[in-house]
Amino acid sequence: MHFTPFAEDWAKLPVIVSGEGCYVTDDRGRSYVDGLAGLFTTQVGHGRSELAEVAARQMKELGFFPNWSFQHPRSLELAQKLAEVAPGDLNSAFFVSSGSEAVETVIKLARQFHKANGEPGRYKIISRDVAYHGTTMGALSVTGLPSFKAPFEPLPAGFFHVRNTQQDPEGAADAIEAMIETEGSDQIAAVILEPVQNAGGCLVPPPDYWRRVREICDRHGVLLVSDAVICAFGRLGEWFGIERFGVVPDMTSFAKGVTSGYSPMGGVMVSDRMVDVLRRNAPMFSHGSTFGGHPVSSAVALENMRIIEREGLLQNVHALEGHFGDELKRMAESHPIVKDVRGMGFFWAVEVNPERADGTPLTGDEYQRYFKGVLSKALLENGLVCRFDDKEDPVIQYSPALVADREILSRIAEITDKALTELERELGYRS
After folding, report:
1. How many CA atoms lie within 13 A of 411 on its CB side?
2. What are the C-alpha distances in Å from 155 to residues 44, 97, 109?
3. Which of 91, 204, 225, 260 is the most exposed, having the fewest neighbouring CB atoms within 10 Å of its CB?
4. Crossing angle between the packed helical segments 172-183 and 209-220, to the nearest 10 degrees
5. Intra-chain end-to-end CA distance of the chain, in Å
């Protein structure tokens, strides 16, 4: 299984057999609020027959044909639609099948662009500590999680990490410039950042962070990349997430929500400037994959975007963002174990203190027992699929479908309240 410990009893894991809207049902008939949208993915919710029908029609018309020296209508239409909604001059699309492949593509594009632009010495990539960017070898190298990388080392050279906005809110942008200068401004190809960093628990940057990073990259001739695999297609209430911060990157990756997970797809949107340089000075972009821009996935993505527009789901996120955050913060007020509540859009985290009521830190087996045992079990048994994550500080993460209403969002906070009460009782915060 994916990212599932061998020591865990896989036979006891839930078997999810169906879904409808913001709910999923297991093989025992038990229903859960899907507070994670599958995995930050099912933006339009489960059970959308429109997407199944579009996929079936496309399979009958043209089930598959590659984008190697040929084209087909759906990927052309999708590329045009994405160019219409992407920020600034991000007008060219390159399609792959996953978020990891999208980040891998970004790395290759950055390096080939600089070679074509007469600066072949630019190959180094900067990203942030704790950030997760994927599992392929390049994307894993961009990832700032040493424990994820250790089993596969040595990894490719040329990847560097700086403190994130949670570790150093005031100095995080300056840390990027310092790294550029340390490693040589003529050797840095790109800086890759998520609009809101996922790993570590929905790390919302300071208001001027992205603007300052854009200025730093421009000053040093470095490409700025937004990794929007999670933050795009409405997760933050915008098509690509980065719009919330008022800058235009040179590239943005995407995946997950582009099809709401109904068919695999990822990709990269690329600036006109980059494409112009590559067209003039390179014979081709030397990269591709069999399933990139797959006809069925492209058709599903187009219909998914139509649903988002037709049902006003971006507007729904903006309208209910405050309610979701307020419900989580109100819930947290009665829980001394909660350290922080943060997020934006439909992307939130509740950070908890890993310690007993007397301040004794929980480590080793005790930590596993209470946080990955009591807390995670209580959330699921009370009917909520969410995510307990501890890549840095322990957090509960939420990412519901964009169709969620006030009742669903309040229900997420209510179930979290029950689970935290149970944990606090076990740890001596409550009698």
Report:
1. 17
2. 37, 23, 19
3. 91
4. 20
5. 39
User: How many Cβ atoms from other residues are within 10 Å of residue 312's Cβ?
Assistant: 12
| Residue 19 to residue 107: CA distance in whole angstroms | 36
Upper half-sphere CA count for residue 293 (Cβ side, 13 Å): 24
| 3-state helix/strand/coil string of 252-312 | EEECHHHCCCCCCCEEEEEEHHHHHHHHHHCCCCCCCCCCCCCHHHHHHHHHHHHHHHHCC
Which DSSP state fits 87?
S
Alpha carbon distance 165, 310 (integer Å): 35
The fraction of the chain above a pLDDT of 70, given in percent, is: 100
Query: What is the pLDDT at residue 430?
Result: 86
CA separation for the pair 54, 261 (Å, rounded): 14
Which residues lie closer than 8 Å to 307 by C-beta, 6 or more apart? 44, 48, 50, 51, 313
Distance CA 347, CA 364 (A): 29
Low-confidence residues in the chain, pLDDT < 50: none
**346 to each of 34, 159, 167, 319, how far by Cα in Å?**
13, 31, 23, 11
Contact (CB, 8 A) for 224 and 217: yes
Residue recorded with tokens 């399609």: 95
List CB contacts of 139: < 8 A, sequence separation 6 or more: 99, 100, 103, 104, 107, 133
Kindly state the tokens that stand for 64: 């598959």
Cα 325 from Cα 413, distance rounded (Å): 9
* Strand-by-strand arrangement of the 23-26 sheet: 16-20, 23-26, 31-34, 384-385
> pLDDT value at position 223?
98
3-class state of residue 84 by DSSP: helix
Write down the pLDDT at residue 193.
98
Sheet bearing 395-398, strands edge to edge: 338-344, 347-352, 395-398, 387-389
Q: In degrees to the nearest 10, what's the CA dihedral of 17, 20, 21, 25? A: -40
Q: Which of 304, 243, 270 is nearest to 95 (CA)?
A: 270
Q: Report residue 16: phi and psi, to 5°.
A: -85, 125
Order of all β-strands in the sheet with 266-271: 90-96, 266-271, 251-254, 223-227, 188-193, 124-128, 159-162
DSSP element (H, E) containing 209: helix 209-220
